[in-house]
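User: I've been trying to design a sequence by hand for this structure and keep getting stuck. Would you show me what you'd pick, starting by listing the structure so we're on the same page?

Assistant: Good idea, let's start from the same input. This is the structure you sent:
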């Protein structure tokens, strides 16, 4: 099979088209003929040498795929060859074939193309866990998401609105703010022109946001404490501006804030299976009716994976970047 290898840690140019043997599915695994694979920022970190795959995972980058089940292990119960699926994988997505435990796969919504289906797993699993399970977002609450035009951000805006929240979102240009409003954001904040802390306070009558999803870190940590409501929650999923900051923890105490965070890739199969079950129940109907959709920025052929990474890192994308295996 064709696959993408990381020749050595470095820039996008170190991604190399290579030939590998097809993987063999284990007892409860599916072998998927991959039609498309999503590109995510953790893939870029892995390429740079900063985010190694967990033990036992493929060294091939790629955390989400869509395609057709070619074969299945003897213990597989819920899928059969020919099924169209999408799946969250711990690695191996940038290849024409990939294995995954059946519990981490879902039937691809029939209303979606394979490239759209490949843009679902990493972002929807991440948003569901961090916004709804860990963050506890409820209908009627005010939700602030930073990086509102990223794959995570565009998914978070849509799901939060679908479940009745008021959504505030930040981005760095008027074009991106317009895109966030089109997705349903009640307030789009251009952080280059406005202080998001003041904008959130103005929009909430001084109350602040009940839940904040942050992938920025750095000086945003302290500012999130300022923008949060009393008893507010902040969920940290990345640190684009750095993982260290000087923070006034008195705000955490006085406002009785909860600041938590998570990573998903290293969690075990059973944990991810639990998220998949909730997505199937609560989110798959929305996708099937196309009421919620992955926002597609661009599609690159597999051999142009380096160009896809450059697109990711230039920061101009809106939504998901996908590799097409055809």
């Amino acid at each position: 099979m064709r696959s993408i290898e990381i020749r050595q840690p470095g820039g996008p140019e170190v991604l190399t088209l290579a030939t590998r043997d097809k993987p063999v599915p284990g007892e409860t695994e599916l072998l998927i003929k991959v039609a498309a694979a999503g590109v995510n920022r953790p893939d870029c970190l892995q390429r740079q040498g900063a985010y190694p795959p967990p033990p036992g995972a493929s060294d091939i980058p790629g955390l989400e795929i869509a395609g057709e089940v070619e074969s299945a292990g003897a213990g597989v119960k819920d899928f059969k060859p020919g099924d169209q699926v999408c799946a969250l994988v711990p690695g191996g997505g940038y290849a024409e074939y990939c294995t995954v435990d059946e519990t981490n796969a879902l039937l691809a919504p029939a209303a979606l193309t394979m490239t759209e289906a490949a843009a679902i797993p990493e972002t929807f699993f991440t948003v569901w866990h961090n916004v709804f399970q860990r963050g506890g977002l409820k209908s009627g609450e005010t939700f602030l998401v930073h990086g509102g035009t990223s794959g995570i951000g565009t998914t978070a805006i849509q799901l939060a609105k679908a479940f009745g929240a008021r959504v505030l979102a930040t981005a760095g240009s008027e074009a991106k703010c317009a895109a966030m409003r089109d997705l349903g954001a009640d307030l789009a904040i251009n952080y280059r022109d406005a202080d998001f802390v003041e904008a959130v306070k103005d929009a909430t009558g001084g109350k602040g946001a009940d839940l904040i999803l942050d992938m920025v870190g750095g000086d945003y940590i302290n500012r999130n404490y300022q923008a949060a409501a009393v008893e507010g929650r902040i969920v940290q999923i990345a640190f684009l501006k750095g993982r260290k900051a000087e923070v006034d923890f008195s705000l955490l105490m006085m406002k009785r804030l909860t600041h938590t965070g998570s990573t998903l890739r290293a969690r075990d199969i059973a944990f991810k299976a639990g998220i998949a079950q909730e997505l199937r129940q609560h989110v798959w109907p929305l996708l099937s009716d196309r009421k919620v959709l992955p926002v597609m920025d661009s599609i690159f052929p597999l051999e142009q994976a380096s160009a896809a990474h450059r697109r990711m890192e230039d920061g101009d994308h809106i939504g998901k970047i996908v590799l097409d295996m055809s």
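That's my pick for every position. To get oriented when you compare it with your attempt: The chain has eleven helices and 15 strands. The radius of gyration is 19 Å.
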